[in-house]
Amino acid sequence: MTVEVIKMLVVLVIFSALIFGFIKMQQKHVKFSTRVFIALGVGIVFGAVLQLIFGSQNAVVTDSIAWIGIVGDGYVKLLQMLIMPLVFVSIVGAFTKLKISEKLGKISLNVLVTLLATTAIAAFIGILMVWVFNLDGASFTEGAKETARIAELATRQETVASMSIQDQILSFLPTNIFADLSGTRPTSTIAVVIFSAFVGMAYLGVNKKDPKTGEFFATLIDTLYKIVMRIVTLVLRLTPFGILALMTRVTATSDFQAILNLGKFVMASYAALILVLLMHAGILMLNKINPIQFFKKSFPVLSFAFTSRSSAGALPMNIETQTQALGVDEGTANFSASFGLSIGQNGCAGVYPAMLAMIVAPTMGINVFDPLYVLTVIAVVTISSFGVAGVGGGATFASLIVLGALNLPVTIVGLVISVEPLIDMGRTAVNVSDSMLAGVVTSKRIGELDEDKLHDANAVIESSL
């Protein structure tokens, strides 16, 4: 047995001990959000120590991370497994929970308008931060990781670029729902959303003519919903372990010099995301809803989204927070949370692609202060925000669509790979905030918001995690 193998085994033993520590914390009923944040911090420290001792390219680190990655990547795959079942049961369940079917149009329209309008504003905020921080794509450096990433993205963009806008719109529609339920296409999520909406509308029609059959179907969906949510609970209990493994890998293998070089981009990104959250607060105030109360009650789900980097994984807590803590009616909560997984994500499909489009534009001789170009970017970003999946890779897909539509190179997406995980945490929290905002605002507008529950400090989600 070589020295390197012994060192690798020591690293894995330490990692296993950390896992055991989180198991003991769970047994002692330490709060879920506390465990997740501790896992985030421990993962960062453990990974940084590994890099400090061995270096990011050392065989001990690469071999150890390959094994540790089973925990992290396994957790991500389980989250991805949940997307389609969650979307289907949540949207169909929203139809079965509608007290008055006549409100369906109002709910759908208000949710969609809120999601898309805030995405357009988020895109402008991203553009504004590029101007304020004077970001220039020509100053971004390229290393070995970036070169490999750029080559991969170029291949992916060829597929996207070969599609016209009409083809892209048609790609949202499901042709084989079983294929889309297995997530075989980049737009599978929006396709499942559309199919689920058809199923829901069919239910309303059947329920009107044959209430007995409608009641049976509603009971069936409710049962399926509870089973899926139970599966979700089982997966989410693994979050501290997944976060520990993912953050260990990120910090152990990151090029810290590259991160420092992109420090201004990170600051600009988070400045934009904070401004988007302030925009959410402004919309709440316009609708006479206390933003402090909203964010205070939303903190558990937003913190989970931040650490897990998964809007889809946050879906159950999203719906639970809206209904139990914010006073949103069940139908609206299911609609807004589900639609928010694939439509109008403010962080991944709003701020991020808009910033990249503005950063790379000067390298193509484009005047980024041209009002027409700015409006074009905002319009393309908003339209392209349809179909962005709520688990890792959604922001990249949205960026490829936007950059392709604007005839810009995808190189910039690869150049920021070093800081992608760091920014993605903030983007995901903003995505979830927007879907919850859409739910609260819509429920208020249709007269279904429970104001007493919203202002009740004791009305909080009771997590079983």
Automatic annotation (TrEMBL):
SUPFAM superfamilies: Proton glutamate symport protein. Signal peptide: none annotated. It comes from the Bacteria. The chain crosses the membrane at residues 6-23, 35-54, 74-95, 107-133, 188-206, 227-247, 267-287, 372-391, 397-417. Coiled coil: none annotated. It comes from Isobaculum melis. GO terms for molecular function: L-cystine transmembrane transporter activity; symporter activity. Keywords: Amino-acid transport, Membrane, Transmembrane, Transmembrane helix, Transport. InterPro entries: Na-dicarboxylate_symporter, Na:dicarbo_symporter_sf. Pfam families: SDF. This is L-cystine uptake protein TcyP. Its main location: membrane. GO terms for cellular component: plasma membrane. Belongs to the dicarboxylate/amino acid:cation symporter (DAACS) (TC 2.A.23) family. It is found in: Membrane. It is a multi-pass membrane protein.
